[in-house]
Amino acid sequence: MSVDAVQDALAAEHAAVWTYGLVSAFIEQQAAAVADGANAHRARRDTTERWLRDQGATPRPPAAAYLPPQPVDSAASAIAALIAVEADACAAWRGVLERTDDGALRRSALDALTVSAVRGTRWRKVAGVAPLSITMPGAAVG
Q1: Is the pTM of this model over 0.85?
Q2: Mean pLDDT of each 10-residue bin along the chain, 142 residues long
C-alpha cells in the first residue's frame, strides 16, 4: 500500500533532518552543503506530511534520536553518516515507486530518489569513497 511506503519515506526524511543537524558541528568547511541538505530534507518531509494528511493518514512523528552507522566524532564519520542517510532515503523513496501507480506520487518519489542519489554522490566524492555513484540507488545490495 502506498500510504505505508510513504510513511516509511517520511521516517527516512525525519532521520535525514536529524542527521544533518547532528553532523553540522563536525564539517564546518561544508556548512553550505550541510545546510542545503538539511533544508531539502526538511522541505521533502513537510511535503510528505501534507501528502499523508491529504490521504486521510496521520503522519508518523520523528523518533527522539537516530543511530548513525558509527559514532559521529569527526568530519569523516559525519560524512559517512550523511552518505548512509542519503542511501536510506533512496531506498525509502524507491519503495514508494515500487508500491504506487499514482502518477503524481511516482514523480515526487522519483524526484526524491534522484535528489538523494545526487547528494549522496557528492558526499561520497567529498569522502573519497569509490565508486562515486551507485548504479541502482535505493536497490538492496546483495
Answers
A1: yes
A2: 93 98 92 97 98 97 93 96 96 95 95 96 93 72 50
Backbone angles phi, psi at 58, to 5 degrees: -95, 120
Burial class (CB in 10 A: 0-12, 13-18, 19+), 102: middle
The set of residues, in sequence order, having a beta carbon less than 8 Å from that of 125 and lying 6+ positions away, is 132
| Residues 96 and 105 sit within 8 Å (Cβ to Cβ) | yes
Contact between residue 97 and residue 56 where contact means Cβ atoms under 8 Å apart? no
- Contact at 8 Å (CB) between 92 and 41? no
Q: Pick the closest to residue 44 from 119, 128, 123 (CA basis).
A: 119
